[in-house]
Design a protein that fits this description.
Elements (H helix, E strand, L loop, with lengths): L1 H26 L9 H9 L2 H21 L4 H9 L2 H11 L2 E2 L2 H20 L11 H24 L1 H4 L2 H26 L4 H5 L2 H23 L2 H22 L9 H19 L6 E2 L4 H4 L11
Antiparallel strand pairs: 1-2
Helix pairs in contact: 1-3, 1-4, 1-5, 1-11, 4-12, 6-13, 7-9, 9-11, 9-12, 11-12
Length: about 300
């Protein structure tokens, strides 16, 4: 359990650092165009900051997979959602952002949620069982909802004004689907690596990750960075925590006090994260760190 939580904390740190670094790269890259995915990917990886951020994201993913094999999914995602503490500290210390009182209150609420979660934590649940029907229903529903969010952000005027946040939320939902699929694959891996790789859930995780890759990149180009990152993180954690309970039967406690405490912990973590998307301003004017608009490709020539 301790090793799993350590891996989860490392994942949270690298995930949020990677998001901030990728934001620097995204705003310096040509606009992402879903009609030209290969060209868009080349433009993103032409930026050294985007590439460095992606390397960090891959390292975070490896830590995440390790944590999922040791700790219930709902616990992993609750701790990762508390990683917004890392987001705030890194943004202030190294990326030139200044957080307001609302954001710091959010950090306090998130830290309180994590404290309650650790105090009420018991032995790891038996994750050997899972519901295939719940997995299919949840993933199909999230894929459909994410598609509607992406389409709505383009077509509907009300959503288009907040396109960056909507795309960030859609990307987060898809990252949550990928996390659920990966957790399911840790079960399949019991039959050997080959059986896990040829599982349809490997394809599900890959498809969700690819779509989320482009949605997240575009959201970082056009949306307020910290708000977009927070929306992405919250959406991913909500989906994954729900998947842990519904699909893998993760326990939320064995008695009334423990159930109440862990429920309160989950609510505090999510509430704290929800306070993060507030207006922020940079300490120093930097096109790479504060611009919400993509830099045209011709400006990079």
């Amino acid at each position: 359990m301790f090793l799993g939580l350590a891996l989860t904390l490392g994942c949270a740190l690298l995930t949020n650092a990677g998001f901030l670094v990728r934001h620097r790269g995204a705003v310096a890259a040509p606009p992402v165009d879903g009609r030209h995915p290969l060209r868009s990917a080349r433009g993103l990886f032409a930026s050294k900051w985007w590439t460095i951020g992606c390397v960090g994201a891959v390292a975070a993913w490896l830590l995440h997979v390790g944590a999922l094999s040791l700790v219930p999914l709902s616990v992993v995602q609750s701790v990762i959602s508390g990683g917004l503490v890392f987001l705030a500290v890194l943004a202030e210390r190294f990326f030139g952002f200044r957080l307001g009182r609302r954001q710091w209150i959010g950090l306090g609420v998130t830290a309180a949620g994590l404290a309650v979660l650790s105090v009420t934590g018991g032995p790891a649940a038996d994750t050997g069982g899972s519901s295939l029907a719940a997995l299919i229903a949840l993933e199909a529903g999230v894929f459909a909802a994410s598609s509607l969010l992406v389409a709505g952000s383009i077509k509907l005027a009300g959503l288009h004004r907040n396109e960056g946040l909507v795309l960030g939320a859609a990307a987060g939902c898809l990252y949550g689907v990928s996390d659920i699929s990966l957790k399911f694959l840790t079960h399949a891996a019991g039959g050997g690596l080959t059986s896990a790789l040829i599982s349809p859930w490997a394809l599900s995780a890959l498809a969700a990750s690819v779509i989320a890759f482009y949605s997240s990149a575009r959201s970082l180009q056009i949306g307020p960075p910290l708000a977009v990152i927070a929306f992405t993180s919250v959406a991913a954690n909500l989906i994954a925590i729900g998947g842990g309970v519904l699909v893998f039967h993760d326990s939320i406690g064995t008695g009334a006090p423990q159930i109440a405490g862990r429920t309160l912990a989950f609510c505090l973590v999510i509430a704290g994260a929800a306070l993060m998307p507030a207006p922020t301003r940079a300490r120093a004017i930097s096109a790479e760190s504060v611009s919400a608009r993509p830099i045209p490709a011709r400006a990079l020539a």
